[in-house]
């Protein structure tokens, strides 16, 4: 139950009965808020977290062990620990290292699903849209520094199209109800060009009649994911990245899963940890975890590849996206402003499951060709700053003929006692997915939570008390102290671009980063043209479980996703700062450099492709 702010007197006058469970939920929510907003609060060290997992024995097990540190896994950990349960989480790579950092960056209800629901008279699809729109609003409110409403423009090249999209998007508003972000509306062709100067007036020999603009949410996905992990840690969960499940432990008497054998991939040490229930939230890899319990377990997911590219900012105006619901081959394409650049996509095709998926050149070309039909600027392969592929773990539907017709709904399944698997779904609904998984875990393990789910109204760390104008404090009261190559320390201004970046990336914790920049002479930018500071590397190493150079360039900052060439130039300095924080030797630094370079090779920007007269040729 949300804290209402009403006094006890008001409650009694209204004669509103408050159950014991409601009082417990309110107390739990207030306790969680106090801990996440405490300015002195620091997440336990990685060593402390490892010790807590090792200390979970068969005689004194965890209530819940979560496998997977993506949005769903970290959401499960946060939900469970906020119910008063004893929780552990292990992640083979880093928090958000898989699908959760490679999303479309949209928090959406699903306009396409609404269209399917109407035309197919599919109540199941309509329920999905209702539910996702409810969750969309909660995600934005619980992480206001990382999420915001984004207007999206849909171009119309004939009057029927105009009417069709206007009516359809008004229905989207109607379904959202009081959770609507802003009303959709029609703009004439001239008004549309004023709002989106690079939009073409003609397409496929047709003239632009106007556009319909509607609103969805946008986020910084991996920072939201890391925020979930850190919030769970502050509330008492033992979250442990770079730790791989080697095998599951079964009870010898009844074959129930009672724990896991884990390898710390940094120290290479192995240990056992025990839990009353294990939740498998490994995304695309959930079937491999299930087969540790039952080698004959059938597939639950159908993997689908989604490719995105990043282009310079001039492709789209700040604060306005472009979404084409149906291209000439029937697919959806979009261009969205994101962190000062333009992200475009996406594809939807069957794929194989791999740790580091790479975009194929034909997929990149498809996106470029598709957006070029709607723009009045030359769309060039050489403009691609970064390109990446993510694997969507879609819930399997044996009757589906293609991945696009698979439902994005999630599945919670216990096909082996003690092992709950949650898969499918989408970023927007991570919170309710986690709630369903924890409910299933409570039933399976006969757990005794101290209260019900409170995550609907629980802000992640940095979000509670944040305001859009919070950046002004950084700009007015902090200085960036920069060390030159000659060793001299010189002051630099904390300009608006840097202040806004820090405020949006770290929320109310941004002043901690600014203090490091000011007091420890780490105020230099890591890459020319980008607002990321050296101080962020130190902060993330101390407070966000940043354990490698890739952790920083890909998930703590988004430099790898925004500009692979800039990320490559920043790597040596990132490693230098992390080495100082984590006491790395020369061998580790050399290893980190190679790992980071190899990682960036999977991002097919124009810089790591071969060209002839500006056209890309395969290697």
Give an overview in words.
Strands 3, 4, 5, 8, 13, 14, 15, 16, 17 and 18 form a 10-stranded mixed β-sheet that branches. Strands 1, 2, 9, 10, 11, 12, 19 and 20 form an 8-stranded mixed β-sheet that branches. Strands 6-7 form a two-stranded antiparallel ribbon. The protein is globular. The model is unreliable at 1-19, 397-401 and 611-619 (pLDDT under 50). With 619 residues, it is α+β, with helices and mostly antiparallel strands. A hairpin with a 5-residue loop joins strand 11 and strand 12. Helices cover 38% and strands 22% of the residues. Residues 453-589 form the Alpha-glycerophosphate oxidase C-terminal domain. Pathway: Polyol metabolism; glycerol degradation via glycerol kinase pathway; glycerone phosphate from sn-glycerol 3-phosphate (anaerobic route): step 1/1. GO terms for molecular function: glycerol-3-phosphate dehydrogenase (quinone) activity. This is Glycerol-3-phosphate dehydrogenase. It is an enzyme of class 1 (oxidoreductase).
Q: How do the strands and helices of this protein lay out in sequence?
A:
Layout: H1 8-13, H2 20-37, H3 46-54, E1 62-67, H4 71-82, E2 87-91, E3 106-107, H5 111-119, H6 123-142, E4 147-156, H7 159-176, E5 185-188, H8 189-195, E6 202-203, E7 206-207, E8 210-219, H9 221-234, E9 238-241, E10 243-250, E11 257-264, E12 270-280, H10 286-293, E13 301-311, E14 321-324, E15 333-338, E16 341-345, E17 349-350, H11 361-372, E18 386-395, E19 410-416, E20 419-424, H12 430-445, H13 471-477, E21 479-483, E22 489-493, H14 496-506, H15 510-519, H16 534-543, H17 549-556, H18 559-562, H19 564-582, H20 586-601, E23 610-612, E24 615-617
Parallel strand pairs: 1-2, 1-12, 2-9, 4-14, 12-20
Antiparallel strand pairs: 3-8, 4-8, 5-8, 6-7, 10-11, 11-12, 13-16, 13-17, 13-18, 14-15, 15-16, 19-20, 21-22, 23-24
Helix pairs in contact: 4-9, 4-12, 5-6, 13-14, 14-15, 15-16, 16-19, 19-20
């Amino acid at each position: 139950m949300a804290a209402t702010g009403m006094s006890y007197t008001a409650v009694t006058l209204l004669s509103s009965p408050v159950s014991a469970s409601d009082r417990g939920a309110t107390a739990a929510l207030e306790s969680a808020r106090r801990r996440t907003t405490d300015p002195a609060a620091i997440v336990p060290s990685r060593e402390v977290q490892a010790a807590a997992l090792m200390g979970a024995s068969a005689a004194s097990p965890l209530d819940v062990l979560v496998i997977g540190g993506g949005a769903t896994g970290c959401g499960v950990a946060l939900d469970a620990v906020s119910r008063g349960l004893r929780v552990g989480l292990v992640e083979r790579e880093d928090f958000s290292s898989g699908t959760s950092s490679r999303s479309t960056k949209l928090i959406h209800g699903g306009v396409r699903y609404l269209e399917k629901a109407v035309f197919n008279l599919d109540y199941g699809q309509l329920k999905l849209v209702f539910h996702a729109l409810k969750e969309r609003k909660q995600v934005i409110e619980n992480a206001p520094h990382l999420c915001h409403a984004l207007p999206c423009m849909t171009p119309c090249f004939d009057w029927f199209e105009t009417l069709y999209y206007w009516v359809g998007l008004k229905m989207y508003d109607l379904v959202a109800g009081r959770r609507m972000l802003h009303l959709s509306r029609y703009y004439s062709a001239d008004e549309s060009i004023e709002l989106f100067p690079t939009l073409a007036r003609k397409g496929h020999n047709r003239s632009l009649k106007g556009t319909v603009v509607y609103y969805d949410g946008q986020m910084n996905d991996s920072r939201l994911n890391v925020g979930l992990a850190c919030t769970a840690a502050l509330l008492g969960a033992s979250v442990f990245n770079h730790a791989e499940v080697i095998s599951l432990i079964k009870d010898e008497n009844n074959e129930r899963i009672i724990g896991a054998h884990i390898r710390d991939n940094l120290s290479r040490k192995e240990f056992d940890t025990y839990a009353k229930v294990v939740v498998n939230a490994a995304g695309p890899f959930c079937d491999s975890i299930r087969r540790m319990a039952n080698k004959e377990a059938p597939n639950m997911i159908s993997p689908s590849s989604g490719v995105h590219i990043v282009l310079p900012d001039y492709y789209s105006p700040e604060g306005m996206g472009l979404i084409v619901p149906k291209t000439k081959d029937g697919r959806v394409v979009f261009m969205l402003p994101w962190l000062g650049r333009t992200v475009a996509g996406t594809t939807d095709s069957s794929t194989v499951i791999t740790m580091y998926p790479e975009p194929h050149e034909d997929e990149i070309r498809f996106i470029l060709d598709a957006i070029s039909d709607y723009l009045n600027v030359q769309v060039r392969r050489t403009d691609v700053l970064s390109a990446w592929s993510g694997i969507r773990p879609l819930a399997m539907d044996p009757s589906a003929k293609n991945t696009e017709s698979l439902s994005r709904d999630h599945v919670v399944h216990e096909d082996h006692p003690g092992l709950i698997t949650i898969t499918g779904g989408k970023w927007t609904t991570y919170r309710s997915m986690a709630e369903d998984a924890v409910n299933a875990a409570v039933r399976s393990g006969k757990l005794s939570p101290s209260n019900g789910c409170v995550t609907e109204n629980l802000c992640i760390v940095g979000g509670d008390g944040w305001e859009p104008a919070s950046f002004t404090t950084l700009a007015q009261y902090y200085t960036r102290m920069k060390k030159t190559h000659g060793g001299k320390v010189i002051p630099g201004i904390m300009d608006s671009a840097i202040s806004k970046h820090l405020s949006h990336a770290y929320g109310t914790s941004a002043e901690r980063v600014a203090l490091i920049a000011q007091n420890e002479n780490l105020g230099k930018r890591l890459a020319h043209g980008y607002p990321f500071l050296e101080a962020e590397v130190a902060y993330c190493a101390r407070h966000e479980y940043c354990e490698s150079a890739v952790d920083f360039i890909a998930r703590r900052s988004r430099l790898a996703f925004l500009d692979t060439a800039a990320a490559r130039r920043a790597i040596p300095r990132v490693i230098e700062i992390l080495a100082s924080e984590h006491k790395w030797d020369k061998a580790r630094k050399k290893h980190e450099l190679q790992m980071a370079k190899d990682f960036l090779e999977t991002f097919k920007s124009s810089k790591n492709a071969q060209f002839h007269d500006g056209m890309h040729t395969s290697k």
